[in-house]
Structure formats: C-alpha cells, structure tokens
Amino acid sequence: MKLYNSLSKKIEDFIPHSDGEVKMYTCGPTVYHYAHIGNLRTYIFEDILEKSLEFVGYKVKRAMNITDVGHLQNDADTGEDKMLMGAKREGKTVYEIAEYYTDAFFKDTEKLNIRKPEIISKASDNIDEYIKVIQKLLDTKYAYTAGNNVYFDISKAKDYYKLSGKNEEELIIGAREDVTHDKMKKNPFDFALWFTKSKFDNQEMKWDSPFGVGYPGWHIECSCISMKYLGEYLDIHCGGVDNIFPHHTNEIAQSEAYLGHKWCNYWVHGEHLNDKSGKMSKSKGEFLTVSLLESKGYDPLSYRFMCLQSHYRKQLMFGFDSLDTAENAYKKLKSRIKALNSKDEVLSDKANEYMNNFKSALEDDLNTSNALTVLFDVLKDNVLNDTSKLYLIKEFDKVLSLDLLEDKKEIDVNFLNKINDLINKRNIAKSNKDYALADKIREELNSMNVIIKDTREGTTFEIK
Ligand code: AMP
Ligand code: ZN
C-alpha cells in the first residue's frame, strides 16, 4: 500500500510498526452542530482507508474522539468555545447539545455506510489521562503555567513546524489582528493544555486538577485518547487538511515530548469539499447536511459515490449539478448490476485479474476513481460471466460500500473464496509439476460438489 505522507510530503510505502495490527487514529467531530457534507467527505475518505487496509490484508484497530469539550472557535486557542456557542444557540446545556449532535453524527455516517470506528471516546471521559500527561510535561519543563493556564512551550519541541511546512515569521505576519494571545505566554504560538482562567465564566464542563479547576485544551484530547487506546506507536493519523496546523502539529509536539520518541509514522490528510466561496464550513454559505440532501430527494450514497469519483487529496467542488450527475451514474450502475443473473460458473483466473486491478488501484494512494473504473470494466467484460461479476462486485463493495448488491440474492462469498483459493493452489501445484497434489485438490473440490474444467482462458468451475 502506498500512501501520501504529509510529514515527508511524499508518497511512501506503508509499513506498519508491528506486523499484527495497524493502529489508526482519526480526529472526530466537534458535536456542537450537525456535520456538514464537507466534514463527512473526510470521514468517507477515512472509512475507505480503513477498509482498503483490510482489503489488502491488514487488521486495523481504529480509534476516534468525540470533541465535547474545549474546542475554541479559533485554532489559536482564542475565540469562542464551540460547545458553548451551540448551547447558547439552542438554549440547552452543553451536555444536551453534545448528546444530541453525537447521535446525529452517527445517524449521518450510517446513511453514508461509514463504519463506526472500533473505539470511540468522548473528550470529557478522559480527564485523568490529560492530567497525567500534562503533569509529566510540566515536570519535564515542556509545559509551563502562565496566567493560571498551562501552556506547551513550542520552543522545546523538535521540528515543531515540520508537518505544516510553515515558519514562525509567516505565521506572525498571517495572524489575524483580532486574535489576542495571552500576554503571559512565552511564544504567541504556545498552546493551552489546560485552562483554569477561562474567559467563559459560564463554562459548564469543569474538573478539578492539580493545575486548578478548569478544562483541557483541544489538542491534548486526541494525543491522550490515541495513546490510551492505541499505545505509544501510532501507524496512521488522519484528518482534514485544516487539521495540519495547529491541531496535528500540536499533537505531535506534546505526544513526542511525553513519550520521548517518534509517535506516528504516517499522517494522511483529506482535502476539502468546497463551495463557491471556498472551504465549506458551518459558519458561512448554505449549511449542507445529509438530511438536507435527503429532503431534496437524493440518496446519501450518491454523495458517497461522488466523493469516490475524485481523489481524496484533490479539492472537490460541490454543486447540485455535479450531485445530479453522480446520482444518475450511481443509479445506472445499480440497475446494470440488478440485471445480472447468477449462474453457477466462475471464470476464476479472469476474476483474479480484476481483483488484483482493484487492489492495485487502492494500493496506489487510495485511487478510488480507478477502483470504480475497474468495477465498470468488470460490468463491460464480455468474457466474464454474471456469477463472476457478482462475486467481484460483492468483494469490491466491501471497500466502496455503495450497497451495490442490495437487491441481489446473497452469494456465499466464503464458499467462492475457498473454491478460488483451492484452484489457485492447484495451479501452483501444476506449474510445479506436482500432479499428485493437483489431483488431490481436484478431488477435494469434487467432494465439495465443485467440478473444475481447464480451458484456454483459465480454470472454470461449476457447482453441482
Ligand atoms: P470538526 O467537527 O469541525 O472538528 O471537523 C471534523 C472533520 O471535518 C475534521 O477532520 C476537519 O478537518 C474536516 N473538515 C472540516 N471542513 C471540511 C471541508 N470543507 N471538507 C472536508 N473536510 C472538512
Ligand atoms: Zn484531533
């Protein structure tokens, strides 16, 4: 599997830290409002990444946080608290807001066939972890207290700007004038690990800590949740490109200061969904949600299909005309699949070729549009019979998750996999001139009521 690593700014071979399992962390939603379809583009890409890793043979352990505390409106740890904004807007408590929008988020992701990560953890459930890490950072002088808040001293971090490729001068020039930094900070870009002197007196979520009653900064939650559930070596960390600075930059600084070694090897970022005014966001333009698409009569999976047609590292412009085109193509695709008839013969060699092509597309930095092309090639193929096509579509849909076989009768994929596996083993035996083994495999297939035929195009089989 090749992936673009934002850290090296290169496409690299993916090599997990340990053979057993890929450890993957994805930044979760801030649950102060509905997710817009831009946010959901990022979760679709992460879902594809997880499923592609599984498709090529890895076991994946994935964790995601739910930000229900501490996400200030401005990334420089200033501005309004997003959760308080939500509570004020709806006249509810922060807890009510968090619960409602967490629920709404998972309803939306379900409609888009985005699988729930194995581990989901709320920011507010991990206060002890933050205290433990912050305390060590204070003890080792990576952090300091100023104006009753605890800050991370970025001058102590190794290669602080490596991930973002930014430099401090640029940032100072680019900083918004209305962003007021705490004057007590050593460096304007030092970031808060723990707030006790909050400008929000009405902050509902507060906890006792050795640093005073307060609440955590935004960045510390992802580092701590990841380290708690996935250990001290993370393979892949994902998010949208807007997370690169300062969020992921700060995560690296504090995690590596805490651990004393490199933390995460691959940083994989999804590009934005844009509207006419630029990056789609909750604060400007039309607020596009999955429910809004449904209310206009769209199938949410047409939006998933639209995302898969483009590469995750390319900006995607949203317009209803493009969604219409995607929906038409998606519907046509489904009706072509519906017309396929399952017979009892699979042309195994040819099917394997398509399987490999599909796999290669995913291994090529998640080239989903090429993966879709392989799917269309399968449908167009005159040699491949319908059963082979249905078998391949079912396999491909494990990653694409477009409900492609929703209307078809179940195919026993495990059984078909076993048959293909035995045929492959028999072919290897034959090429090694081990005819005794080849015959034994033929008999084994016979006993499963599978009759094989060697043809010029490859080995075919029939289920009696
Ligand atoms: P938030 O709920 O604001 O923390 O964002 C959740 C995820 O959506 C993060 O990974 C962001 O990087 C991502 N995101 C935000 N806006 C967009 C957008 N317009 N297109 C794609 N991803 C986005
Ligand atoms: Zn995060």
For this entry, give a set of tags.
Rossmann fold, alpha/beta, binds adenosine monophosphate, 464 residues, 15 helices, 4-stranded antiparallel beta sheet, binds zinc ion
Describe the protein's architecture and organization:
With 464 residues, this protein is an alpha/beta fold. It has 3 domains: 2-270, Rossmann fold (3-Layer(aba) Sandwich), CATH 3.40.50.620; 284-400, no CATH class; 413-463, no CATH class. The protein is 44% helix and 18% strand. The chain is built from 15 helices and 19 strands. It has helices spanning 37-55, 82-90, 94-111, 127-139, 168-174, 218-230, 244-259, 290-295, 300-309, 320-338, 348-363, 368-380, 386-400, 413-431, 435-447, and strands at residues 2-5, 10-13, 22-26, 60-66, 72-74, 78-81, 119-122, 143-146, 149-152, 191-195, 215-216, 234-240, 264-270, 273-275, 278-279, 316-317, 345-347, 450-455, 458-463. The strands form 6 sheets. Strands 7-4-3-12-13 form a 5-stranded parallel sheet, with helices on both faces. A 4-stranded antiparallel sheet has the order 8-9-10-11. Strand 3 (22-26), helix 1 (37-55) and strand 4 (60-66) form a beta-alpha-beta unit. The chain is elongated, with a radius of gyration of 26 Å. The site of zinc ion has 3 residues, from loops. Adenosine monophosphate binds at residues 27, 29-30, 38-39, 41-42, 239-240, 242-243, 272-273, 279-280.
